[in-house]
Amino acid sequence: MAREIALTPLKWQVGYAESSDAIPGKLAQASVPGAANLDWANSIGMPEWYRDANFTEWSWMEDVFWVYLADIPKQALEQGQSLWLVSGGVDYQYDVYVNNELRYSHEGMFTPFELDVTADMGSELRIAAWPAPKDPLGVKNNSTEAAQCVKPAVSYGWDWHPRLIPVGIWEETGLLIRERGYIKSAEVLYSLSENLDLALLEINASISGEGNARFQLYSPDGLLVVECDADQKPRIENPILWWCNGYGEPSLYSWNVTLYDNGQVLDKSSGRIGFRSITMEMNEGGWQEPYGFPKSRSPVPITLTLNGVPIFCKGTNWVNPEVFTGCIGKETYRPLLNLAKGAHMNLLRSWGGAIVNKDSFFDLCDELGLMVWQEFPLACNNYRGTPHYLGALEPEATSIIKRLRSRASLALWCGGNELFNSWSGMSEHSPAIRLLNSLTYSLDPLRPFLLTSPLNGMAHGNYIFKFEGQEVFQTMPKAHFTAYTEFGVASMSNLEVCLAATDMENLFPFKSNPITRAHHAFGMWGPYDTWSRVDTIKSYFGPEDSLKELIDWSQWIQSEGLKCIYEEARRQKPYCSMALNWCYNEPWPAIADNSLVNWPAIPKPSYFAVADSCRPRLASARIPKFSWNPGETFEADLYLLNDSLEALPPGEVAVSLAFCGKTQYETRWAHNGTEANKNLQGPTVRFLIPKEKLSPDAGSLNARPESKKKYEILTLRLESGPLTNEYRLVLYL
Q1: Do 69 and 12 contact (CB within 8 A), yes or no?
Q2: At 109, is the secondary structure helix, strand, or coil?
Q3: CB 52 within 8 Å of CB 30
Q4: What are all long-range contacts of 55-60, with beta carbons under 8 Å and residues at least 24 apart?
Q5: In angstroms, rounded to a whole number, what is the distance separating the alpha carbons of residues 602 and 555?
Q6: How far apart are CA 699 and CA 68, in angstroms?
Q7: What is the rounded distance in angstroms from the CA atom of residue 627 to the CA atom of residue 732?
Q8: Structural domains in the chain?
Q9: pLDDT single digits (tens) 402-423
Q10: Rounded CA gap, 289 and 300, in Å?
Q11: Is the separation of the CB atoms in 494 and 595 below 8 Å?
C-alpha cells in the first residue's frame, strides 16, 4: 500500500487549446485534483451541470486539449536534497512540459508519474491533457467510443449516467522534497500456512540513494510484533485474522519501513495489512451439473471462501459516486461505505464501467470489513486486441494490480462487465482477457480471477419489478443460479433529489419530456418507460394525485421487490452464494434508477428494506405475489435464514397478517433451530381473505376518489425477537 505523501500544492491555471503544445488564450483557476472541464465551467458561470439538461452544453469540452499551467517555485534545498513533481495520475492521455520542453508522455489515468525538477525551479510547468479518446469504429456519442482506451466507459453515457467525460489532473499532484536517500515504493505481501497459523512476510522496499531500511510491524492493538531489516522475511505465528463484515473483526496490522543513514531518518513509508486467505470454491451441487450426457462444463466456482469459511456474499454493485471523479475524496466515500456496512453488506462489486477507486476507498473498506470485487475498466464493449489498446492496457493494469494487491479488502479480480455477451462479442480467447489473466496471475497469484461477469451459472438481471407479466415474486423462486451478480428493481428517486434535478413544473404531471428523459426516468432501453416504471405503478394503484404520491408508490414497490430478491437468493443457498443488486449509489441526481442510495449519500426506503433483509439471521417468507384480492387464499412459505457462524437455537416465530387496521390472522411456528451458516425451511401458512366487505380505518390509504384503486396495506409480520421481519403488500377492497 502506498503511503500518503504530504505534497506541496502548486497554483494551477487551466484553459483549452487546439494542440498539446499550444498555450491557451484564456485561463481559469484550477482545482487539483479535479477536472479541467468543471473548472472552466465554474469560471465562466455556466449553469449547474446536474440540473435540467445543462450537461449537454458541455459536449464540446471533450474534443479540445486542456492545458494546465503552474510555476515551479524556488525552494531552499539542503545538501543532497532534490525536488520532485509527483502525481497520482492524469485523466487520460497527456504530455508534461517544463519550459516548453516535453519531459513525459503517457496514455492512461491509473499510472502515477514523477519528475526530478531540482534544476527547473523558477520554470513553467505545463500538463496538456488530450481530448477524450474515441474509437472511430464506435457509435457517435455512445459508450462504444470507449472501446479502445482504458478509460471508464460510463463517462461516455449510460442508462443512469449522463454523457460527461472528465479530463484533467484527477489524483493528488504536487511537489516533494526528497533527501539524498528515499523510499521509492514499499509494500508488504505475505503467504499463509494451510491452517492459517503462520504468516511469512515479503517486504518489497525500493530504495534510491543512500541508507539502510528497517521494518516494524505492529499488532491491531498497537504492540510491536516484528522489527528487522527490510530485506528479511519475518514470520508471524498465529496472526490475528481479518474478517469481513458480519463474520468477525476486520483486524489490521500496521507497518513502517524507515530509511536511516548514520542514525538520521531520511524517509519513512507506512501502511496496513490484514492477514486472511481468500479462495473461490465450487458451489454445492455445481459439479453435478449439467446432468446426464452429452456433457458440457459445470458452472464456474463462485463461492467466496474467507479463512476457510464459505461466505454468502450480500452486497451490491458500486459505481463512482461523482461524475467528476477527480473531486472524489475520503469524505465522499465515507458516508456511503458506512451505510453499506450498516446494511450488513460484505462485498462490493466495483463495476468495470467505472473508475478503479482511489486509495481512500480501499482504506475505508479495509477498516469496515467490506470485501471488494475489483473489475478492470472494461464494460459492455468489444475491446479489440489492437497493438495500441493492448499497449495502453498492460501498463495501466499493472499499475492497478501493484497498487491494490496488498489490500485486505480486495477479494478478487475480474476482467470486466458483460464481456461475453452478444453486445460485447468477446470471449476467453480475446487478447485483452488473456493479458489480464496473465498479469493477475504473475503479479497477484493467490487472489481469484474471474474472466467477466456473468459466467456459466451466474446471472445478471432483471432490473424491473415486473417483466413480461411476471413479478419478481414469481420469477425468483423459479430461478436457479449460483450467483445473482446484478439484479434490480427500479424506482423514482427521493422527492428532494428530483427537485435537485429540475423544477416541479418539469416533474408534475409526471411524463416523458426532455428533462425527465435526460435524468433517466423514461426511454432508457427497450419499449419500457424505464426507470420510472409509471405503467407498473399505475397498474397497481391508479392515477397519482401528486409527485410525492407517485414516488411513495414507486419506492414501496422497489423496497418489497428487493426484499424478495435478496431473501430468495439466500433461500437458494448453498447452491447460490451471492446476491449483489444493481446498483448501490449514483453519481448525480437521477429522477429514476435502480439505486439504493441517491446522490450524494441519501438513502432511499429500499436501502432500509435491503438492510433488513441482509441481517445475518432473520425469519423470512416466500410470498407468491404483491397484490391480493378478497376471496383469495394468502399463503407464504416460512424460512429461517442464517449466514452467521453461530447456531440458531430452538424458538418460535409468531406469524400475523394485518389489514384494515387490525390483525386478521395469527399462528405460530415452533422450530428446532439451525446449525451455523445453515438455513431452515419451515411450514407454509395459509389464510382465506374474506369476501365480505372490508371496513378500513377512516385514515387508511384507501380513502381516495372513485377513480383511484381502493386498497389497504396487507402486512405480513414474522415476530421472533431480533429475527423479526415484515412485508408490506397490497390488498384491494
Answers
A1: yes
A2: coil
A3: no
A4: 55/162, 55/163, 55/164, 55/518, 56/163, 56/518, 58/164, 59/141, 59/163
A5: 14
A6: 62
A7: 7
A8: 13-172 (2.60.120.260), 181-273 (2.60.40.10), 278-613 (3.20.20.80), 618-732 (2.60.40.10)
A9: 999 999 999 999 999 999 999 9
A10: 11
A11: no
- For helices 547-571 and 534-541, angle between their N-to-C axes, nearest 10 degrees: 100
Segment (H or E) for 335: helix 330-342
Give how far Cα 70 sits from Cα of 19, 173, 397, 718, Å.
Answer: 18, 12, 30, 64
Cβ atoms of 450 and 412 closer than 8 Å:
yes
Which residue is it, cell 383511484? 708
At how many degrees (to 10) do helices 330-342 and 359-368 cross? 30
In the predicted structure, residue 702 carries a pLDDT above the cut 80: no
621-644 residue pLDDT tens: 999 999 999 999 999 999 999 999
End-to-end CA distance of the chain: 61
Instruction: Give the lowest-confidence range in 61-75, 264-278, 594-608, 684-698.
Output: 684-698
Using CA atoms, how far apart are residues 509 and 546, in angstroms rounded to an integer?
A: 8
For helices 547-571 and 605-613, the axis angle rounded to 10 degrees is 20
158 DSSP assignment:
B
pLDDT tens for 280-319 read: 999 999 999 998 899 899 999 999 999 999 999 999 999 9
Question: Any idea which residue has 426511454 for its cell?
Answer: 523
**Beta-carbon-side half-sphere exposure of residue 600 (alpha carbons within 13 Å):** 13
Cell 489498446 belongs to 389
